Amino acid sequence: MRLILLGPPGSGKGTQAQRLVQKHGIVQLSTGEMLRAAVAADTPIGLQAKDIMAAGGLVPDEIVIGIISDRIDQPDAKNGFILDGFPRTVPQAEALDDLLKKKRLKLDAVVELRVNENALLERVEKRATETRARGEEVRADDTPEVLTKRLASYRAQTEPLIHYYSERRKLLTVDGMMTIEHVTGEINRILEALGATEPKAARRASPAKRSASGAARKGAKAP
Length: 223
Ligand code: AMP
What we know:
Bound molecules: adenosine monophosphate
Strand content: 5-15%
Number of strands: 5
CATH superfamily: P-loop containing nucleotide triphosphate hydrolases
Number of domains: 1
Structural class: alpha/beta
Number of helices: 11
Largest sheet: 5 strands, parallel
CATH topology: Rossmann fold
Oligomer: single chain
């Protein structure tokens, strides 16, 4: 199964992606996490991305397209993947179409998590509080000021993808204001209706796929 999760910052893409990973034994490919790992490891890409990310801007298309193209080729992505935070611009979506075509892979669906913007600030503040409570470092871009910029980038550069994928009959919209459980249930229901998931019995009968899901939960690698 190959999916894109689309939605503004704080819409729950990361949370839902993790749940889908566990259920379907596929990998979550989050460009945000890969870039944060690159920043933490001081790689050349990390150095290029650091200030842009801290200011809430978008990292150049060619960087993220290169990261995703390499990552899709890795063995743990063979069983399928969820793109979380990519594509974020129309040129990225076009490049993704091209590279999937070259790799002879098909995209099953694009799931848009639609949320009320007023709730996003509250959600991002909650995420920062929970991260602090776990004793972990809070993301540099999870502040009200930067969130405003990230939302502006989303509206200007990412929202056009809703039209892009709806024209290509790939778009499915889910109400992201429901509880986490309900959103997961709704996404799974849609995927089953699409025939994008294996029936439960087939999954139980396939231990090889279950072991692939173990690999899927490994952390992001720094590009
Ligand atoms: P995220 O974790 O998805 O919220 O991403 C955090 C930050 O990483 C974004 O605000 C951007 O600066 C950068 N980023 C992540 N994915 C992309 C992408 N597909 N294109 C450009 N910049 C990205």
